[in-house]
Amino acid sequence: MKMILAIINQDDANLVTNGLMHEGYSVTKLSTTGGFLRAGNMTILVGVEDDKVTAVIDIIRKHSHSRRQVIPTTSELGMGFYPSMPVEVTVGGATVFVLDVDHFERV
To answer: Is the distance from CB of 38 to CB of 30 less than 8 angstroms?
Structure first.
């Protein structure tokens, strides 16, 4: 058994979770905040059998898209760096971790 942990941009979160639930997967959603842009994310947890991992990742990939976003000059990029002009960055998409599950039990 595997635990899929995916960090998804807030703009894509409902599409991803609806897509997963439509295919019969149980999803746990956690509201999270990204460190770089301090923007809203959704972290989802999906427990699946090993042979379903690729199908879940395909659904996440289908419904989460990266996009370009301009950060205003008032945003800090970290370590005290404030750009002198707006900066365009890529946001969105998903970061996916697949973890082994040693033990699973419904209580």
So the answer is: no
| pLDDT beyond 80 at 34 | no
Q: H-helix or E-strand containing 94?
A: strand 94-100
The DSSP bridge partners found for residue 27 are none
Domains annotated on the chain, with CATH: 2-100 (3.30.70.120)
Pairing of strands 40-48, 28-33: antiparallel
Stated pTM of the model: 0.74
**Residue carrying the six token digits 């959603």:** 29
* Closest listed residue to residue 12, CA positions, set 95, 89, 86, 82: 95
Look-up of token digits 């990742």: 57
